[in-house]
Design brief:
The structure is a homodimer of 413-residue chains. With 413 residues, chain A is of the alpha/beta class. Chain A folds into two domains: 142 residues, Aspartate Aminotransferase, domain 1 (Alpha-Beta Complex), CATH 3.90.1150; 258 residues, Type I PLP-dependent aspartate aminotransferase-like (Major domain) (Aspartate Aminotransferase, domain 2, 3-Layer(aba) Sandwich). In chain A, 36% of the residues lie in helices and 14% in strands. Chain A has twelve helices and 15 strands. In chain A, strands 2-8-7-6-5-3-4 form a seven-stranded mixed sheet, with helices on both faces. A four-stranded antiparallel sheet of chain A has the order 11-12-15-14. A two-stranded parallel sheet of chain A has the order 1-13. In chain A, helix 6 links the parallel strand 5 and strand 6. In chain A, helix 3 runs parallel beside helix 9, helix 4 packs parallel to helix 5 and helix 10 packs parallel to helix 12. Chains A and B meet through helix 2, helix 4, helix 5, strand 9 and helix 8 of A and helix 2, helix 4, helix 5, strand 9 and helix 7 of B.
Chain lengths: 413, 413
């Protein structure tokens, strides 16, 4: 009988989202009149930019005409899109990234997961993640057999966890144990912290000294408001030798339901085979991407291209400014309540310390019960997230104002 | 330093497509006036059905209005699409497949590759493929470490190859060696052969007796013209206990550039863990699909939904009939030349025996040189494909007629 990948059996049930759902449903059942406002969701709410809508209408028409119809495109994405990405996202910020180092895909979640395909199976590489962490990084390593069993608490044996808390300014400390791979997400989900140039230089330096591969997730770079902060790890000298960068149109241009992202694999990146042979990672990913993937919809790629026009950039900026206006309101309201508030300046997520020693879930129940507001318990992202709570600024202004008014009036801290 | 997945180094260069390109370019360089007709390509040429174009325009408009905007959808696909698939593709043909056993994805190439994620890593399962074979099945097993090295010729050590040739009517023989997994593709790429009910019953019976998992690729089922042939493996009693089925909108509705497919994993399917524990494959795939994938574009899913309307079915039928009209012309022309011709009746591919003992590449060079017509050498799909040649009916009628006229006038057999 066919044998299954037993690494999947190590996975703890992804209990965060279902548990939130269970508690909200139970509360709603007992309080049918409560108008619950959900501020836990990391999904956009505003419509697509008008330039994207127009570009997609035109592309749909192309697909309806024989002479303009497109079948299979290049798996890596059309050149007209990759060239604009190279110019606008990278060259314009001084990063030496060529168009053919960019792979267009259908999502950063997929890419951060699939990248493991080209790395050694089993427990060969030592892998570090931050704590708290975007759960996909951990779960996909468990599935790939890169970890041992789950330990008491929330950690998997074999992974190196780098705690990021208020005490270290949410900047992941360099790993004392030498690691082969480290995931860095900046601006960060869930903490909302963005790494500065010095932080990134320390990591690039570490990676060069220890021959570590940095998997840099910049899905929220468009939310950076501080002009001194890097948007790409390739703004740091030497990063081309150590880092893969993941970017997404999901949060930039509202593509969570449209699906487009990109991964940068510089041709200067290498790994080793068991026999010590140096192997080009770009070549491996090219083989993976062209064998196991068939490209992103032509229509979607036209929408992504539209984001790079001057008008597209203006429209994207406007939507992000709107979300960041929500973030500002949330921050201000929580500070006024006397809470310790982080994030929400260069990221759409506000990360708040729970007051009075409450656990993340106790604070969740308190906000739900007293204000009918739902957020995300920080402990759901890792042990070091315990005692924190995430609020998302992806919402209507009306909901944000109403939620903050309720917090002020109803919640007794 | 990070270690790479050295299984990738076992991959022979995918030399079929580049070698065709090299020979065509060399010929064109020497004969700049030759008007070369490409009949090797497995990609659609006709525009999208009008119902899909209309559905996508409406969906794009939805995405431009705040009240109708859709962000992340269910990773498995929207219920309105999965329910139509269950009703029209399965219930209507007597297959007991529930909507929640259907996973919508962005391509069958991806799914047939990704399914390996939930199966045991390394060389635990014995895996059978047909010969000739769609190369992705083989390459992805090599990447996953399910094989040994490539041997002299074209085979990988550890895989079981089931030759399908004119001698056995292109029906894969039951494996003498017990196998854990077998790939069946019907209607077949590249041979154009479709398995009948009796063939499928033999395989389902084999799979039940040997506890084998059948990976059934039905990407070309819409091309079946013989009403006695099954379109789904679930038309065979007992298949729910042994088979996963892959389907695609690529060739059905011309979605090669739009990207939508589906995989059926019945809840009755199980595998075993190392300790002998029975594990539900549906649950494993659900975990894989929701962790490593973020769903198909809302706009694309609306286009797929439109295929299931009565008018959509009529338009899809019309396009397929057009391609099959090409196939008929190709078959008739080749038969008139005295060649042994297979396929092209229930599949868009015509599979022809090369005359006079020519190898596949010799016949390629002959057609290119004498008629300026490009096809695909059968040997590129496996050793048992040697001495065969594939012509595709995905083309304009004009090109097909011109190519066949040249074959008649210019090629000396």
């Amino acid at each position: 009988m066919v044998q299954i990948n037993a690494n999947y059996l190590k996975l703890k049930a992804g209990d965060l989202v279902p548990e939130i759902g269970r508690r909200v449903a139970a509360y709603q059942a007992g309080h049918p009149d409560a108008k619950i406002i959900r501020m836990g969701i990391g999904d956009v709410t505003e419509p697509l930019p008008a330039v994207c809508v127009a570009a997609m209408h035109a592309a749909v028409d192309d697909m309806g005409r024989r002479e303009d119809f497109r079948g299979y495109g290049p798996e890596q994405g059309y050149a007209w899109l990759r060239e604009k990405i190279a110019a606008r996202d990278f060259a314009a910020r001084g990063c030496a990234i060529e168009a053919d180092e960019i792979f267009v895909s259908d999502g950063s979640k997929c890419d951060t997961a699939n990248i493991l395909d080209i790395l050694a199976p089993g427990r060969v590489n030592v892998i570090a993640v931050t704590d708290p962490v975007y759960p996909v990084y951990v779960d996909t390593n468990v599935m790939a057999g890169h970890t041992g069993e789950a330990r008491e608490g929330a950690e998997y044996e074999g992974l190196v966890y780098l705690p990021t808390t208020a005490e270290n300014g949410f900047a992941p400390p360099l790993s004392e144990r030498r690691v082969d791979i480290v995931y860095l997400c900046s601006p960060n989900n869930p903490t909302g912290a963005a790494l500065g140039r010095v932080d990134l230089e320390r990591w690039v330096d570490y990676a060069r000294r220890h021959e570590t591969l940095i998997l840099f997730d910049a899905a929220y770079e468009a939310y950076i408001t501080d002009p001194s902060l890097p948007h790409s790890i390739y703004e740091i000298d030497g990063a081309r030798e150590v880092a893969i960068e993941f970017r997404s149109f999901s949060k930039t241009a509202g593509f969570t339901g449209v699906r487009c992202a990109l991964t940068v694999i510089p041709k200067t990146l290498t790994g080793t085979a068991e026999n010590g042979e140096r192997v080009d990672l770009h070549r491996l990913w090219m083989r993976r991407h062209t064998t196991k993937f068939n490209g992103v919809s032509y229509i979607t790629q036209r929408a992504a291209e539209a984001v790079y026009s001057d008008e597209g950039r203006r429209q994207v900026r406007e939507t992000i400014d709107f979300y960041m206006g929500n973030a500002k309101i949330i921050r201000k309201s929580l500070v006024a309540l006397g809470l310790s508030v982080y994030g929400g300046v260069n990221a759409p997520y506000v990360w708040v310390k729970t007051p009075g020693g409450l656990t993340s879930w106790e604070f969740f129940d308190k906000l739900l019960g007293e204000a009918h507001v739902v957020g995300t318990p920080g402990s759901g992202f890792g042990q070091a997230g315990e005692g924190y709570f995430r609020l998302s600024s992806f919402n209507s202004r009306e909901n944000v104002l109403e939620a903050m008014a309720r917090l002020k009036e109803k919640v007794r801290l």
